Amino acid sequence: MMKLALSCLLLALLSGGASAELREGKDYVLIPQQQTDARDRIEVTEFFWYGCPHCYDFEPVISKWVAKLPKNALFRRIPAIFPGGRWAPAAKLYYALEAVGETERLHRQVFDAIHLERMNYISEADVTDWLEKKGVDRKKFSEAYNSFAVKAKVERSLQLTEAYRVSSVPMMVIAGKYQTSNTLVGSYEALPAIMDELIVKASAEQGKK
Prior knowledge:
- The chain is an alpha+beta fold.
- It has helices at residues 2-14, 53-66, 88-99, 103-115, 124-133, 138-145, 148-163, 182-185, 191-207; strands at residues 29-30, 42-48, 73-79, 171-174, 178-180.
- It has a single domain, classed as Glutaredoxin.
């Protein structure tokens, strides 16, 4: 019986049945602690760019994971912007969609429109034409797109991209300090398990405070 138990334990370890300990520098890197909006929950932040093919490939993986997000976690997206502003139009599009309440319905479809249909997301006219076909009120979207509120959020995205030390996308940050990505861990598919472990780690740390 002892031999059988040992054999089962060895099989579990070899098959990945046991949770591997997180490794700093391999599974995640630490960044300076950032203030989050989650309060009593663990914030999980995705930095992305609509024009990024890697973000497009990652979208099905992250969407599936978010659908099963732990109750003690809060998910938010931030469109990354680097100095120079080349990514600003994509951020403006995202925040305008958010302002008219269409982010969840159309987020994935925007990716498809850009990467499959070659929609010019930098052109307000082209984006508005496309959204109108999707049932979005043209005037309402245009007002949001050119609003002070959206402009302020775009500027804030630039600040957050720098503060969170984002060097590439997609980039995930847990609890405002644990940064991880497919580049670091080796694949998109490996990220959900790492993020789950980082949420547990951050929860335990907060529980000690």
